[in-house]
User: What shape does this take?
Amino acid sequence: MASHATIARSQTPSVTRTTGTEQRIVQEFLTDFAIDQALASARSITGENPSADDGNQAIKVAVSLAWQDLLMECPGWARRLHNPLVDFAVLASLCEQRVRRRAFGHR
Assistant: This one.
């Protein structure tokens, strides 16, 4: 019988445990153009450059806007991928990573 700590740890979302579905959704439906739009909108909303500092408010707004765009596309990718089983915590993490990589020039 597994201990409680082992069970809790195995249920924690991890980007390394992706089945490929979440990665495919982020690659196909979160385009560079959509990320660039989110970065530009974040710049106009906050008045800060989202690419300047990892901790500034603008990058957080850009991630939020990109996440909202990805969720708006949910009916499209659910239909196209035949209603896949998706871990939204992993999907959100992959979305954030992709936006940050785009904002900071793949640093």
